[in-house]
Prior knowledge:
This protein is mainly alpha-helical and 370 residues long. It has helices spanning 2-14, 17-38, 47-64, 77-86, 90-101, 103-108, 116-136, 143-153, 162-193, 195-211, 218-223, 225-237, 271-275, 318-333, and strands spanning 45-46, 244-247, 252-253, 260-261, 266-269, 336-340, 364-369. Strand 3 and strand 4 form a beta hairpin. The N and C termini lie far apart (50 Å). Bound molecules: protoporphyrin IX containing FE (HEM).
Amino acid sequence: xxxxxxxxxxxxxxxxxxxxxxxAYKSGxxxxxYNTISSSASGGLxxxxxxxxxxxxxxxxxxFGIDCNSFTDPFSDFCKYxxxxxxxSRIKRLRALIINIFPYLGKALRVKLMPRDVTKxxxxxxxxSVKHRRENGIVRNDFLQVLMELVDNNKDIDSISFSEMVAQxxxxxxxxxxxxSATMSFCLMELCLNPEVQEKLREEVNLILNKHNGTITYESxxxxxxxxxxxxxxxxxxxxxxxxxxxxxxxxxxHNSDIIIRKxxxxxxxxxxxxxxxxxxxxxxxxxxxxxxxxxxxxxIPFTYMPFGDGPRxxxxxxxxxxxxxxxxxxxxxxxxxxxxxxxxxPIKFKLHSFMTAVEGGVWLNATKI
Length: 370
Ligand code: HEM
């Protein structure tokens, strides 16, 4: 089932669907980002929050086809429930523990990780959107449309049920917004700690945008190779998804050892630890985009760097996530210089009660118009 959906999405994303969709949307966001930066109080700009609003609006539009209006209406239900997804409250931690350590008990007790009200809210949105589109013959260029067509047209594959479709849109939204906003926040923070990298990156952005009449296009973004290296280095130091989870589906004998991983065993791969291990990345504390230049990136040992996971369950939103991240960074860097706000405590502390890698207290920066 998942393979079918993932293949279809990859085909559509390959066609440039993601780029088309949110490039149409981003023009509206540019203005909002500028306004937010310009109006930020003297205490600094709450960058992590601003970028969460940006990605929530983009994914909301691309996944559900709805305007979330996070900037203009930060207390909307959409924002409220979206934020609730990632809050790791005491009760959620207990649920996660039961599901992971005592899965049978979890099943018997019908323990769910996500609070019922959150699931119900998103279920209602998708149900309403599908009904509205069907009744009014509306066709949009978004993820929901891809799934609706998959349900309606594709007779060669196992058809997917309505609840499966809802679940996929939900997963797409959850997986898509916080990951990219965290990447941008950490990236801007490191650019403040390494002003020479910020300057070099801005030079590249300006040079390439000038070649393209100052407009952000798919082609101009693809040419920004130093930007790629900076984003890759950010994802190394701060992978937004800090661990990968797998379940062993058949007994597996680890090479050159007498260890057998038994079928059914759950495996946690500590991604953030791998990415910051001096054995694989010398001087891991140093933010060094040169690790990812064309000359150097072949030196990275396979499977020591996996910010998007690997194998059949790897992230299906890589291209979308990178495009979204690049658009956000280009939009902010071309007109503003960033420095750390006095609200930012360095060295940072990671947020403890979160599924994602995040800074305790958020990322706060000063933005100065160039
Ligand atoms: C910088 C941005 C992003 C990062 C770092 C990231 C990272 C990841 C990681 C580590 C996984 C788990 C992979 C594994 O277990 O092997 C994942 C899964 C996933 N991601 Fe992303 N992601 C990003 C952006 C996105 C976006 C923008 C979307 C959708 C638009 C998306 C959709 C998904 C989906 C649907 C899955 C689940 C795949 C499955 O279960 O097979 N991701 N992502």
